[in-house]
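Researcher: Next sequence.
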Amino acid sequence: MSSEQVLQVSLADEEQMVAFGQHLGDACEGEGTVYLCGNLGMGKTTLCRGVLRSQGYSGAVKSPTYTLVEPYEFGDRLVYHFDLYRLADPEELEYLGIRDYFSVPAIRLIEWPDQGRGVLAEPDLKIDIEVEGTGRALQCQAYTMRGREILQRLQSSSA
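Model: Next structure:
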């Protein structure tokens, strides 16, 4: 895998996770499907809060564990925050109308994407989050041309 398709990031604390999320939101430029992977408490929802901040949202951000998706609208921009942790069967996504969420330009942030395996669309970007000392290590991997563009913008903003 070439280095232009992977970005490694070390973040010291929650504040840096939110800031990285803001850079990610800006780098998506209104569209992108981002898988967020990591154990409970790794900061997936915190990263989502940063993405939403980049779009101008200042309210509380909770993981939509029971509703599965929380839509946010910003004028002509959409952000869909999915949490599939409690999904019992990927086919449940069909009842949710999952295809509709992928039929319009939007930023789609998907926590626990493995729960939707076989039904979810391929991500543009996958972010794996792990513990690193008292902070977090992120590995961002592009899967599409859009994902590579998002990574390039992220690399430019963190340079």
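Model: The first helix runs from residue 14 to 28. The mean pLDDT is 92.
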